[in-house]
Design goal:
With 87 residues, the chain is mainly α. The protein is built from four helices and no strands. It has helices at residues 2-9, 14-34, 36-52, 54-74. Helix 2 (14-34) packs across helix 3. The radius of gyration is 17 Å and the shape is flat.
């Protein structure tokens, strides 16, 4: 059961997962810059909801961190294809 999950994680290297995360962060930053008013409303709403759902948000954050740690541990440093070029 877990063999298919592990093999799908190992198809990419740690560097590939880093690129995916940093690309998502960059996309969010670009969206915030392009839609400042909407972003302000979204973050204001999130700021109001965080105290009400603190335990849920804390639990989900812990699950995300644990999942990221598992993927980082299972993914091999040099496995998969990399997009780096040696010039």
């Amino acid at each position: 059961m877990f063999d298919s999950i592990v093999s799908s994680i190992r198809k990419r290297s740690r560097g590939d997962y880093e690129e995916v995360v940093f690309a998502a962060i960059t996309d969010v930053r670009i969206w915030v810059q392009e839609h400042a008013e909407r972003a302000a409303l979204v973050f204001l709403a999130v700021g109001f909801l965080v105290p009400f759902f603190y335990k849920l948000i804390l639990f989900l954050g812990a699950v995300v961190v644990l999942g990221g740690f598992i993927v980082w541990t299972v993914a091999l440093p040099g496995s998969g294809t990399t997009t780096e070029k040696n010039d």
